[in-house]
Amino acid sequence: MTLNNKLSRLKEIISGYGSCLVAFSGGQDSAFLLKICSLVLPKDKLLAVTAFSATYPVAELRKAKILAKDIGTRHRIIKTVELDNQDFVSNSVRRCYFCKKELFRKLISIAGRDKLDFVLDAGNVSDKKDYRPGNIAKNELKIKSPLVEAGFTKEDIRKASRKLGLRTWNKPSLACIASRIPYGTRITPRVLKRIEQAEEYLNRLGLRQVRLRHYNGLCRIEVDKGDIRRLLSRREAIVGKLKSLGYHYITLDLEGYRTGSLNEVIDR
């Protein structure tokens, strides 16, 4: 199926919903979904909701606000409290299930109050390659994933976003900050803030796609393979900064950035 055919199918699916609430992180996928919804549905039949918590970078919240305004949709910000849930904090391999279940329940409640028929998330076909227990919660609560239904891959979303002039077309992948913490290591506000500060610093150095995997006193940095030389050229400054944040040992992953690298231990 061509990209144009997928776009037509996506618009047809969304039009059939009548009205919807979009779970909007401000990342590439949810920005694309929200944009298509805005082209198909009347303004009063569409609402973007961004969930803010200690697991979501403050800088991304600012960007999400600007992006929703640019797209021209109603936008609401809610607070979620994953850290009050011991099932989440204990950080088992089902961590994302508990997080998504709380989020989707809140979105369903908002949709009901606002008389919106469906809650949409921006999952896509490429997500199926990774371990995503949050999808179980999504299925249990009957959340719609129109990008999956229309057959969109990550690359399709990138190409279509560029055609639409979305600033997010080449935005680096986003993920919950808790995804940097190995399963079994307790999630705390202090650790989340340390990771957020470290990644913000690395981004300011011009490293596009960054993940800082946290192992208490040690961190493992993942960047795109093309950025490894750039990172090494700033080695001393990076070591100094990350040690000031509390890391004793700073390591570089020679395999480079890849989605869900902490899930590799599950397969083993």
Describe what this molecule looks like in 3D.
With 268 residues, the protein is of the alpha/beta class. A four-stranded parallel beta sheet has the order 3-2-1-4, sandwiched between helices. Strands 5-6-7 form a three-stranded mixed beta sheet, with helices on one face. Helices cover 46% and strands 13% of the residues. Helix 2 (28-40) packs across helix 8 (154-163) and helix 5 (95-113) packs parallel to helix 6 (134-140). The protein folds into two domains: 3-163, 3-Layer(aba) Sandwich (Rossmann fold); 177-267, Alpha-Beta Plaits. It is built from twelve helices and seven strands. Strand 5 and strand 6 (218-223) form a beta hairpin. The longest helix has 19 residues, at 95-113.
What is the secondary structure topology, with strand pairs?
Elements lengths: L2 H15 L2 E4 L4 H13 L5 E7 L5 H14 L2 E6 L6 H4 L5 H19 L4 E3 L13 H7 L5 H4 L4 H10 L25 H16 L5 E6 L2 E6 L4 H6 L1 H10 L4 E4 L11 H4 L1
Parallel strand pairs: 1-2, 1-4, 2-3, 6-7
Antiparallel strand pairs: 5-6
The number of distinct β-strands equals 7
Q: How many helical stretches?
A: 12
By CATH reckoning, the class of the largest domain would read Alpha Beta
Please name the CATH topology of the largest domain: Rossmann fold
Percent strand equals 5-15%
Estimate the helix proportion, in percent.
40-55%
Radius of gyration: 19 Å
CATH superfamily of the largest domain, by name, is HUPs
Stretches where pLDDT falls below 50 for ≥5 residues?
none
